[in-house]
């Protein structure tokens, strides 16, 4: 199986997965997860019983979580299989009474508690981010640049919000304009160039790339404050100009 259709999880058990490039999500075979966590000889029956149990408990969103995809089976043929993305899968795991499921439940409780802590004291989020990056092997210098890039991005999105730019699709459109102007790629093209799936693009940038990206976003913020754009088209023009500042710097360095 290719990386698009399989991934190893839970010790040495092979869990069938599917990568949706459009949604940028992994979808996991629920049957495989259940078999691994419960050791059931009939994971399909277990899943069928679990679904009935969840409905009785009032979990009406189950149909929204589960999607049916054709995944390759052990006989080499593809069959319709119930799947869920990471968020949906973790919700289902919460309802599985198994010792192997307990570490996930403990982890979810810990993450939930940490998010509440970060809401009360945002500084904790930066401390945890620093700790996580250090564990992943990033240098202190890179981490400082990365955390600074978060601040720069926040200043830009605050400026966009003040100009009436809508979160979501319009933010993405303007971000692509900046990225194309300085790096020559849209965000998606940049991710493909670096062969990334769910990984964060900025977490896979070099120090120089982070600096150039910050220059592009800072330039866009300052130009926006000066020009005070009123429409998405005007914001796109400014985004392109802001990105070009870093683009020119990149070309000079090259």
Write the layout of secondary structure elements.
Blueprint: E1 6-8, E2 14-20, E3 25-29, H1 30-38, H2 43-56, H3 62-65, E4 67-72, E5 78-85, H4 86-93, H5 102-120, H6 123-135, H7 140-162, H8 169-183, H9 187-193, H10 207-227, H11 232-253
Antiparallel strand pairs: 1-2, 2-3, 3-5, 4-5
Helix pairs in contact: 1-2, 6-7, 7-10, 8-10, 8-11, 10-11
List keywords for this structure.
254 residues, alpha+beta, 2 domains, five-stranded antiparallel sheet, 11 helices, disordered N terminus
What features would you describe in this structure?
Residues about 1-10 have low confidence and may be disordered. Helix 1 (about 30-40) crosses helix 2 (about 45-55) and helix 8 (about 170-185) packs parallel to helix 11. This protein has 2 domains: about 5-110; about 140-254, no CATH class. Strand 1 (about 5-10) and strand 2 (about 15-20) form a beta hairpin. It has helices at about 30-40, 45-55, 60-65, 85-95, 100-120, 125-135, 140-160, 170-185, 185-195, 205-225, 230-254; strands at about 5-10, 15-20, 25-30, 65-70, 80-85. By secondary structure, the chain is an alpha+beta fold.
- Helices and strands, in N-to-C order? EEEHHHEEHHHHHHHH
Structural class assignment:
alpha+beta
**Major sheet summary line:** 5 strands, antiparallel
Number of distinct beta strands:
5
Helix content: 55-70%
- Note poorly predicted spans: 1-10
Straight-line N-to-C gap: 40 Å
